[in-house]
Design goal:
elongated; 5-stranded antiparallel β-sheet
């Protein structure tokens, strides 16, 4: 084997995919005896310095990261035919392919996918790397349900020269953040906006911001707000709506970061006793309809049982909310409906028990205030006594006007005036 051509080590078997910048092949590493993904830059792009820089940028970005949800890099080099990148081979599909095949994903499958992506992004962000192109086509899913984030070609590395040209943005128009579209400085939360778009698409089968032209899409991302999830999917876990909205917050400073996304998911799953794991993804990929119906039953029973538990512990609002949630995943039994009706009636009686005394108290206070006003108006009015006083040292005349109360402490003269006023 020639040492002058490092590519001779890899035996190309077939093409996996081709993008705007490079082609990815399934190859066999004859030295380590394993399958690898060999990524090669298109020959017609070799004279474009910025594109070549992006290619090497991807190698440097991935090389600094070590996480199970980020694609691993094995080798990087350059030959007469251009630069190449050797990565781990993932036997599976992309999230884009899964969405095209299944359209809407089950709640917990979508949530587990997003959880793993957020975990990988958290690692990248802690190392000062922003992906800037999170989208379903760049998310790989292996047969065991493990997610890999790939294609760091336009990733931004802190403390390195940016490859973004002034007045332009990089990324896919449907998945970019508002600050990305406007060419503003970026931070890790720009990937979270893209993550929110992916979650919305997983749960509804459609993009939150869509239009006929790229410029219209960008305008929508900057100015518009997407429809609620329940508009397109009537079987959504309620708090997933909150997660999507917080990810799609327009201001990057008000948006969740990757750690907060993970904390949000873990906290809500713990509260609702939901168990997430990668086997949900693999089970769905192997038998979609069977898994989908099983998850529906699981969520129905979970929220119904938690609602009954809430009622027993006098957590009425939480119980009613969970009954409402359970009703989206299955049909409540007559006993369940009777229990909910009793709880609702009990709440009305309790509200009445609180409202009636409040109304009575308000009425009594109003009567007291009214009587006080009537009594005060029936008392003698104040007398204004005006007396002209002349200052001998000045030609001007002052008029001093004094207010006196019709009570004690007045002079005999004023009392006499007051007596005259009282007489008819």
């Amino acid at each position: 084997m020639s040492r002058t051509d490092p590519l001779q080590r890899y035996q190309i078997r077939n093409r996996i995919s081709a993008g705007g910048m490079a082609t990815v092949y399934l190859a066999y590493d004859q030295v380590l005896r394993r399958d690898v993904a060999l990524k090669m830059l298109h020959p017609f792009l070799l004279d474009q310095a910025e594109t070549v820089q992006r290619f090497s940028n991807e190698a440097r970005a991935i090389a600094t990261l070590c996480h199970e949800n980020i694609i691993k890099i094995y080798d990087f080099g350059e030959t007469a035919s251009g630069p190449f990148l050797v990565m781990e081979y993932v036997d599976g599909s992309t999230l884009q392919e899964l969405l095209l095949a299944k359209n809407i994903l089950p709640n917990l499958v979508a949530l587990e996918i997003i959880r793993q992506i957020a975990s990988g992004l958290s690692c990248a962000h802690k190392n000062g790397i922003f992906h800037r192109d999170i989208k379903p086509a760049n998310i790989l899913i292996d047969k065991n349900g493990t997610i890999r984030i790939t294609d760091f070609g336009i990733a931004f590395l802190l403390n390195s020269e940016s490859i973004t040209m002034t007045g332009t943005f990089v990324g896919s128009p449907h998945y970019i953040s508002p600050e990305q579209a406007e060419g503003k400085p970026l931070q890790g939360t720009t990937d979270i906006f893209s993550l929110g778009i992916c979650l919305y698409q997983c749960l509804t089968g459609r993009l939150p911001f869509d239009a006929e032209t790229p410029h219209a899409v960008i305008h929508s991302i900057i100015h518009d707000f997407p429809d609620d999830l329940l508009t397109y999917n009537n079987s959504v876990v309620f708090w997933l709506e909150d997660l999507v909205k917080q990810c799609l917050t327009k201001s990057p400073d008000d948006r969740m970061d990757s750690e907060q996304v993970l904390d949000f998911i873990n906290t809500r799953c713990t509260t609702d006793a939901i168990k997430l794991n990668r086997t949900r993804i693999s089970a769905f990929m192997s038998s979609a309809e069977m898994y989908r119906s099983g998850e529906q039953r699981e969520l129905f029973e979970l929220y119904r049982d938690r609602a009954i538990e809430d009622f027993r512990e006098k957590r009425l609002v939480s119980g009613l909310r969970r009954f409402e949630q359970a009703n989206l995943f299955g049909e409540l039994s007559p006993e369940d409906i009777k229990l909910r009706t009793r709880v609702l009636r009990g709440r009305k009686f309790r509200h009445a028990a609180i409202a009636v005394p409040c109304i009575l108290l308000f009425s009594i206070i109003s009567i007291i205030i009214l009587k006080t006003v009537v009594i005060s108006e029936s008392r003698p009015k104040e007398v204004l006594f005006g007396q002209e006083m002349h200052d001998t040292s000045s030609s001007e005349t002052e008029v001093v006007q004094t207010t006196f109360a019709p009570s004690h402490g007045t002079t005999p003269e004023i009392k006499e005036v007051m007596a005259d006023v009282r007489e008819p």
